[in-house]
Amino acid sequence: MGRIVRILIALAILGAGAGWYLTEPVMRSTADVELLTGDKAHGEAVFWASGCESCHMAPNAKGADQLVLAGGQAFPTAFGTFYAPNISSDPTAGIGGWSIATFSHAIRDGITPEGEHEYPAMPYVAYAKMEPQDLVDLKAFLDSLPASATPNKPHDVGFPFNIRRSLGGWKLLFGGTGYVLTGDLTDQVKRGRYLAEALAHCGECHTPRNAMGGLTKAAWLGGSVIDDGKSKVPNITSGKLDWSDKDIFTYLTTGATPEFDFAGGAMAHVVENMGHLPESDVQAIVAYIKAVPAVK
Amino acid sequence: MEIHMKKLKLLGLTTALVLAGVTVWAETADPFADIVETRHGLMMQMAADVGKMGAMVKGDAPYDAATAARAAANVVAIASVISLDQFPAGSEQGKSADSSAKPELWATPDDFLAKLGDLNTAAEALKTAAATNPDALKSGISALGKACGACHSAYRASQG
Known about the structure:
The complex is a heterodimer of chains A (about 300) and B (about 160).
Chain A: H1 2-22, H2 31-34, H3 40-50, H4 52-56, E1 74-77, E2 80-83, H5 100-109, H6 124-127, H7 132-143, E3 156-157, H8 167-174, H9 187-199, H10 203-206, E4 224-226, E5 231-233, H11 245-254, H12 266-274, H13 279-291
Antiparallel strand pairs in A: 1-2, 2-3, 4-5
Helix pairs in contact in A: 3-7, 9-13, 11-12, 11-13
Chain B: H1 2-28, H2 33-58, H3 65-81, H4 104-107, H5 109-130, H6 134-155
Helix pairs in contact in B: 2-3, 2-6, 3-5, 5-6
């Protein structure tokens, strides 16, 4: 009997050790970005495509204030309420003091400068696919934006989700750097896939999540709910959306549905962001959406 | 005889149900039905005019400055008519059959009116833009849409 207990204890220690090891924040090498030089002008295009300001501007910011990335907007979820942090160029309150390596870990690995896991309210699973040059250019552009001294608001997340280490397990299950749409794709669809899956992170709102908050890739872009269940996000695959290419293009660039209704909400920010992209990029996103398998 | 009794019972039951129905209808006749229809009509006319300009933006119709300008003038006129008059207290979703208005509208009427002001500003700008050129028309429609969307996302319940 004593021996069995001893074995069980030993196994428990081993299991805990393995769990600790598996949940350790994993940082990818930053060798691919360290030697690159950032291009601010191109970084602005990456910025709009990625929609950084939609979440990181101050609540209800208007006009030029939308480029003061002071943070503070609340994101209510089933796991608690997350508050977007200050990512302005302020060296202490914001990210102005970050090296490119720190920036890379935050964007592509979901790891804070303190070496902790970020909550996946930040779409790092999408950004993990960001091209090295785009990452460096994005930082150059962010560094050029105004500074804000607004301190970060702590997330309002209860036990057990407040244990950031557990996110290591989440990342093992739902992380990864692969694309959802695969196969023999045209260059235009590939460009659209990069824009939609890596930068614009459409799937974060349009793909349903499972009980643990992971995206259900089998129902990619098949519609979901956000704001802790309060807002419906439509299925934008051909299983539901019967809009023509022109309809989708018009919607993404003006916000007008084929009935000339204007929905507003989070998508209004996306439309604003899309307005900064070259037409060919919006066309590529349209081509990508049309290529995504239908979800009924 | 027994069949006759059954028929009588059925008749009695039917009469009772019809009477009950009339009573319920009389009690819940929708006092906001007309005003909700009025505001929906205003929105639909606005959508029809925006649609005329939208077709040009989309490339479904050739750009025509005069047609666009007339549609934009209609939008200005309709926007100027909309006020709290078409949104009397209580005409909210759940209290009036066709209403999609959220109760928040009456909690923050000043914000609603401010958003309405933004709509009027955007409509005025669109009037100039519509007669200028297709690119100006497109940005004018986008700006107007932002004003529409800001109010819809705050005060219109999800219709999806």
